[in-house]
Write a structure and sequence with these properties.
It is a single chain. This protein is an alpha/beta fold. The protein has a single domain, classed as Mannitol-specific EII, Chain A. The protein is built from five helices and five strands. A five-stranded mixed beta sheet has the order 1-4-5-3-2. Helix 4 runs antiparallel to helix 5. The protein is globular and about 35 Å long. The two termini are 19 Å apart.
Length: 162
């Protein structure tokens, strides 16, 4: 396995959060959020296309009790550094729901840069904890600043960070 110098510690900071995104499609949205990973050199050039292609084949939309969420990711081969980005939409964008394939209005995207499958499961577990907390999800969705979003998510992933 190709371990980076940080030993697969998760990278997540306020630069990896986007607020009030306006996108006309899920593809446009995925490209926009992918750019955050590029800017930090966390991923290979192939990441953007890989994440879009994977979303077409294996939809990641998730219906929570309150807010539509998507958790897109690409295969580890496209990723250099374990990382997370969060995108919050001004207006919902349609994704397909992961189990039914039904169209779903998504307002929050947790995009994962995953370097191995063990980390993947740990990340999904942390995100599912957030998704179960209706109030926390609402706080993320309606946060006024990146700092607010960061502080909402931090407790769930702090042990994954360096």
């Amino acid at each position: 396995m190709n371990h980076n110098k940080n030993g697969d510690k998760l990278k997540f900071d306020k630069d990896m959060i986007m607020l009030n995104i306006r996108a006309s499609s899920s593809d446009e949205l995925l490209k926009e959020i992918s750019q955050l990973f590029y800017d930090k050199d966390y991923v290979h050039d192939s990441f953007k296309q890989a994440i879009i292609k994977r979303e077409e084949q294996y939809p990641t939309g998730l219906k929570t009790t309150s807010i539509g969420v998507a958790i897109p990711h690409a295969d580890p081969v496209h990723v250099k550094q374990e990382s997370l980005a969060v995108g919050i939409l001004k207006d919902a964008v349609t994704f397909n729901e992961m189990t039914s394939g039904e169209p779903l209005n998504v307002e929050i995207v947790f995009m994962l840069g995953i370097t191995d499958s063990g980390q993947h499961l740990i990340m999904l577990k942390a995100i599912s904890e957030i998704l179960r907390d209706k109030e926390k999800l609402s706080n993320i969705r309606y946060a006024a600043t990146k700092e607010e979003v960061y502080q909402c998510i931090l407790p769930y992933i702090s042990e994954l960070l360096e």
